[in-house]
Design goal:
Helices cover about 65% and strands about 0% of the residues.
Amino acid sequence: MTASEVTLESLDRAEAFENADELAKPEDFPGQRHSKKSRRFFTFGIKQVAYPEEEIREYITYGFARQSLLQLRYNQWLEDGGYADTPATKDFQEFVKSDANLNRWRLTDEHLFLAKGILADEARNAKWLTPQAEWLSAKETYLDHVRQTAQPERWMGELTKLFDLRFREQYRGQGVENFFAAKRNSRGDHVREIKNGLEAELFNDWINGARSLNETGRLIQTLRQSLQTRVDALAPKSTRLREQAEAALRRAGENDKEWVKVGALSEFFGKRRRLLEAKAQNLQLNYLIKTQNLALS
């Protein structure tokens, strides 16, 4: 390039590192009076200036996607860095033992021992009183019944017959042993009902961002450990219940022995009534514990 071929305009453009190709016109910018400089240069070491638009879009997309995945996986928000790539420190021991949570999941002792219904039709069944309420009601009903319908000398025998009949045939319309034998065949339905409810709650919490995938897994693991601990305690609990039932039955027998010794004076001062109430209390406890023990089996 000779000096005569160099114009002032071309020198200005050379100093600005603009493309010397005359076809490469400066870029126009809407709303501006003057054109902008070209992004193409012909200086040493530079061929073209370009914005990595595709890479920028990919980087931004990756950033959003990574944050979304971290929220779903760990859900630990840090004010200075967004969602962290490590799990939050949480203890689920108390959470899985909460009465409110266990009741909602139908995993309380009352549910697992069928004191309360698990399936919808069981929960709606008005005959399903808890064992405590069932045998308390029986005691109060039978005490009034024998006092009003039987001679005093027959009170103890009639009371025993009524409790025995309720245990064998009338408890929840079937009798205690028949009821729990039938429900053992429905365990698969009970397990599915509990599983479906728990899965739905945990999945909704994860989708809504209330709990991360990591937290859900840790919660389930903690719940399994808690349930296993409760299962391991059933055998010694069953033994204790059996011993308590036998003790209550022995006390009821002692009440019978005292009954035959009551004289006219003791009867006048209400000893027969007190012995009847004591035996009713012991029979109530005996059959309540026997019911609970069968529920454990």
